[in-house]
Give the backbone structure.
Amino acid sequence: MEKALALSDYQALAELRYQIRLFLHFSEQAAREMGLEPQQHQLMLALKGLPPGMHPTIRTLAERLQIQHHSTVELVNRLSAGGLVRRHRAGEDRRQVLLGLSPKGEKVLRALSMGHKDELRTQGPALVVALERAMRPTKSAHGSSPNVLLRRARRGRLDAGIS
C-alpha cells in the first residue's frame, strides 16, 4: 500500500529538522567556545551519561555516538591529551581499558551542560511542539491514518469503506 503524505506532513518534518538544527548549532558553538570540537563534547556527555551497567569503553562510546571505533579512539586521544578524559584498567579484567572524566573534564562538561539546560528551557517548547506535530498520524486520501487503513485492509474492509 502506497502511503501519501500531505504538504502539512512535509512542513512538520521540515520544522522539526529546523528546531533540531537550531539546538545542534547552539551546542556546536558552545563546545567551540569552550575549546572543544562538538564530537569531543558529545563523547564527554555520552561518557558521563552512560546508563547503569554499561562499561565506559571505546566500543560502548563508539556505539553511543554512532561513529567508527578508530574515530572514537582519536577523540579519546585528543581529550586525554587535553587532560579531560582518563584511561584506566578494569579491576577484574586488566586487559579492558575503561574511560572516565578527569576533574577538569567534569568541570568543562558541567559548564556546557548547564548552558544546554538553559537553552532547552528557552528553545525546548518549540522543539516539543515540532516533534508532536511531526508525530501526528498522516491522513491519506481516505481521511484515515495509514495504520487504520492497514487494519481495515487486513480485515477486508477498505474497499467497502467500512470503519
Summary: The domain at 7-137 is CATH 1.10.10.10 (Arc Repressor Mutant, subunit A).
